[in-house]
């Protein structure tokens, strides 16, 4: 792990991003992405080649409306909303059919943190049934006190989503754990410690600038928590 600032305090809660933090999203997204554009072509809503996988992966962590503006910018709101519907349908089906993966030792680490009394949450810019579906499909749903998604709460930014989560659950101190600049911003603007996940590789350049610690594997959270000082 790479320490950027010293002396972390033990948090009462940890708030996790989903894609690129807990879930190895490309194991689901890439096959679904191709299916989605096949369906859009069948429905005469899209013509031409499927956009690149690299482009789609670069959008992970964004709100869906922002993803479609970047991936299919020359199509209108109706096509974008149909893409939302298809994405959710295909993702939920894919969670049943495909061999999708969490990152190594995510389930074991969440279980250990839970045993230590850390309150665990998810804050994701994804759709509600997708976020809950991933956690359920991989057996980690029971570890979480709450799973918050922009799709469910209609928040404009992850800053707003994390604030809502913290207010609703009366959380005073938390570690925001994620892999994108939106996670760093959400943690910092809510006055919390940020743990940057540098193992997914979706972030570009300065994506995790401002994080308090960078971790290279998820299980490093246990050592970080053990070494942190009592608040």
From TrEMBL:
Give EC number(s), comma-separated. 3.-.-.-
UniProt cross-references to SUPFAM superfamilies, sorted A to Z: HAD-like
Instruction: Report what the protein is called.
Output: HAD family hydrolase
Task: Kindly indicate where the leader peptide sits in this chain.
Answer: none
- Top EC class for this record: hydrolase
- Alphabetical keyword list: Hydrolase
Q: Does the keyword Coiled coil apply?
A: no
InterPro entries from the entry? HAD-like_hydrolase_sf, HAD-like_sf, HAD_2, HAD_sf, PGP-like_dom2
Lineage of origin: Bacteria, Bacillati, Bacillota, Bacilli, Bacillales
Is Hydrolase given among the entry's keywords? yes
Q: Which GO terms describe its molecular function?
A: hydrolase activity
Write down the superkingdom of origin: Bacteria
């Amino acid at each position: 792990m790479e320490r950027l600032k010293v002396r972390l305090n033990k948090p009462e809660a940890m708030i996790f991003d989903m894609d690129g933090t807990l879930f190895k999203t490309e194991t689901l997204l890439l096959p679904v992405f191709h299916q989605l554009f096949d369906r859009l072509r069948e429905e005469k809503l899209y013509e031409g080649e499927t956009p690149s996988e690299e482009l789609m992966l670069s959008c992970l962590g964004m709100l869906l409306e922002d993803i479609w503006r970047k991936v299919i910018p020359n199509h209108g709101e109706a096509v974008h909303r149909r893409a939302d519907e298809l994405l959710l349908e295909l993702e939920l089906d894919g969670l049943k059919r495909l061999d999708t993966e969490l990152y190594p030792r995510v389930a074991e680490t969440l279980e250990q943190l839970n045993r230590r009394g850390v309150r665990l949450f998810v804050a994701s810019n994804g759709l509600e049934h997708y976020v809950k579906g991933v956690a359920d499909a991989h057996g980690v749903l029971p570890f979480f006190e709450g799973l918050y998604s922009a799709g469910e709460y209609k928040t404009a930014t992850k800053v707003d989503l994390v604030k809502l989560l913290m207010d609703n659950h009366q959380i005073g101190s938390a570690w925001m754990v994620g892999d994108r600049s939106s996670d760093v911003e959400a943690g910092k603007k809510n006055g919390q410690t940020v743990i940057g996940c540098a193992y997914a590789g979706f972030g570009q350049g300065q994506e995790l600038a401002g994080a308090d610690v960078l971790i290279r594997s998820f299980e490093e959270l246990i050592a970080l928590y053990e070494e942190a000082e009592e608040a």
